[in-house]
Design goal:
Elements lengths: L3 H17 L14 H17 L4 E7 L19 E6 L3 E3 L4 E4 L8 E10 L9 H6 L1 E11 L10 H6 L4 E6 L3 E2 L2 H13 L1 E7 L5 E7 L7 H12 L13 E6 L4 E2 L5 E7 L7 E4 L1
Parallel strand pairs: 1-11, 3-7, 4-14
Antiparallel strand pairs: 1-2, 5-6, 5-11, 5-12, 6-7, 6-8, 9-10, 9-13, 13-14
Helix pairs in contact: 1-2
Length: about 280
Amino acid sequence: MLMSTQANRYAHQLLTARADAQQIPCLTKDDNLSIADGYDVAKCIVDIRTAQGETPIGRKIGFTNRRIWPNYGEREPISAPIWAHMYDDTVRYSEDNHGLQDLTGAVQPRIEPEIVFKLAKAPPKDATLEDIAECIEWMAHGFELVVCPFADWKFEAADAVAAFGFHGALILGEPHVLSSATRSHLADILTAASVSLSYSEGEEFRLHSAGFGSNVLDSPVHALLNLHQTLQTQPQFAPLAAGEIIATGTLTDAYPVKPGQTWSTAFSGVALPGLTLSFV
């Protein structure tokens, strides 16, 4: 466990880098930090951001896509999901499933297409997969903009945990309120769902990649359950609560973006509209 003064120092380094849109060396470069140490830094960060007036409104789950684990981590590949808080000033809704995002101040930005949930109630402590699904009020498609203060996106898992889980912003499409019948089969529905991701730097869109719900810990509902179980081992953080918005992790890899690009998605196997996001 980190000394509180050291965790606080790392927290301020990361917050300063975010404010100044600068890159910094990995925290693990000269310090052998554990995942638990990373969450100590994350706790300092949420306390500081809350004191400064930001309001946590949910969580983002990172590295739920097992297919991309080997692509990240320098000394050791990423081998488990992580999570971080999202805030009232980092989450917003698109208009008619079209959004515009300013990349000013975004360090090494990348885009991730995700399934997002809003909780209607807090899950019971010993929740099953079915219990977790029953707690979901709505689902939506979202684009998460992830940013990284470490050069060339090279880092260890503890760095990612500390650095806001790399959360920059979440742009949400139209929410779809779930029926009881849909909730009872939601995990299977999302396992079988797929998304195509296209982009344009002019008028013509090109298919870039595809992703599947099964990539996300077998289903985004499984990812939500994993987060719920993880939080029970972290008493320093509040458990999941009614009203929280949960971004469950990318269906594809995370791809670099730049001003002038427009990215668009289309779904198959699930009744969600695609989302179009332009960068300036």
